[in-house]
Amino acid sequence: MLYKLKLKNSSEEVLLDEEVFQFLSTDPYLKDVKFLDNLRRHSSGCAVFQKTTKKAEGGYSTQTIYLHKLIAETFLLNKKEQDKDLVGAENGNKLDCRLENICWRSRAVASRKRKTSSKTGYTGVYKENSRYRAVISVNRKSIHIGMFETAEQAALAYNEKSKELFGEDGKVNVIRTDQCPHSNKENDAIRANQSSVFTPSKDFSVDLGESKPSTS
User: Fold this and answer.
1) Section 192-211 average pLDDT
2) Is residue 185 scored above 70 in pLDDT?
3) Which of 47, 84, 87, 128 has the fewest CB atoms lying closer than 10 Å?
4) What's 181's DSSP letter?
5) What is the CATH architecture of 114-191?
6) What's the mean pLDDT in 102-109?
7) 171: Cβ–Cβ under 8 A, 6 or more apart, which residues?
8) Would you give the DSSP letter of residue 169?
9) For all residues of the chain together, what is the average pLDDT?
10) Residue ranges of domains in the chain
């Protein structure tokens, strides 16, 4: 069973496995701060909980808990390695917090997977006059892939080169299907959507052992 949770400041939703949902809804500390009721979409694209409190000596302090990091530290800590200490999402969607989608990454891979700043909306794709150039970075050097008639064609070419060079650690663009209908199959594989979803009520009654989550 999968759970879909609404965010306070967005129409988007978080996707959770049943065991993760049960932990988040029954952990005494998380219940006390109403963690699930106060998840928001962060500017980085992930779900975040923030609580601001007034300090006795004056001023305020803010507690921040990133949902995908909390899940990784609670359920996937055994997969963390010395050179893989950053948490990411396999399909690029940080709101997809299923255990199979959350992973530990090296800084190099995390940098490669980050959100693109290109105005085309695709990593490695840039408009030049009426055509689109596809490029990919290897060891901080840009490699020209080719020139294409559409941004979607260039993005597909980037995807192929990224898989060739980096395998599963390569960034893969999700192609806009309204512009490139034949890419539906590839997009389905990238998104890895699942249809079995349950929207929970707010009646959480089972208690687990006392624990306080890491916020690092």
Assistant:
1) 37
2) no
3) 128
4) G
5) 2-Layer Sandwich (3.30)
6) 84
7) 92, 112, 113, 123, 124, 162
8) G
9) 82
10) 1-54+61-101+196-216, 114-191
Task: Quote the DSSP letter at residue 148.
Answer: E
Q: What are phi and psi of 186, to 5 degrees?
A: -65, -40
Task: Report the alpha-carbon distance of residue 131 to residue 175 in Å, rounded.
Answer: 17
Comparing 35-44, 45-54, 86-95, 144-153, the range with the smallest average pLDDT is: 86-95
pLDDT given for residue 107 in this prediction: 80
Q: Compute the distance between CA of residue 103 and CA of residue 169 in angstroms, rounded to an integer.
A: 11
Closest to 180 measured CA to CA, from 115, 117, 135, 132: 132
Look up tokens 């808990």; give the residue. 65
Residue 175: which pLDDT band, with cuts at 50, 70 and 90?
A: confident
Scanning the chain, the segments in alpha helix (DSSP H) are 18-26, 28-32, 67-75, 107-113, 151-166, 184-191
List Cβ neighbours of 23 (8 Å cut-off, separation of 6 or more).
74, 75, 208
Q: What pLDDT does 184 receive?
A: 52
Q: State whether residue 211 is helix, strand or coil.
A: coil
Backbone phi, psi, residue 43, to 5°: -60, -20
Residue 92, pLDDT score: 81
- Whether 90 and 101 have beta carbons less than 8 Å apart is answered as yes
Q: Which two tokens stand for residue 116?
A: 């693109």
Buried (b) or exposed (e) across 155-168, using 16+ Cβ within 10 A? bbbbbebbeeebee
